[in-house]
Amino acid sequence: MTKLTLGSHPFLLGFDQLERLVERTAKSENGYPPFNIEQSAKNAYRITLAVAGFGEDDLSITVEDRQLIVRGKQADPDEDRIFLHRGIAARQFQKAFVLADGVEVAGAETENGLLHVDLRRAVPDTIVQTIKINKG
Known about the structure:
This protein is 9% helix and 36% strand. By secondary structure, it is mainly beta.
């Protein structure tokens, strides 16, 4: 008996990358830094990451192969400092979010230790498309 996977089902044409996207997203799941995802309008979303202690120069945002990747790396701390307790995380991170077709980054900003990344979905002008049949 042949095992049917999501990408190989005959009615799901062009979705063969979906399984790879789900696997890639599952592998990158960790809890640091904490984040929220909210729908800010009908076709707009906002990802908010808690990045206390990271300056704007310590953060980078890129889109690679339909993935929004947020990276944070702080400069090396002063070695002269002696911590009696260190409860504020200063480790580097990479957080990846898979973007659907048509979703674009609209902008990003930092505010009060939070990084906001705004996304928007481009809405096509026509939803119904008629295809002309040519004579062979």
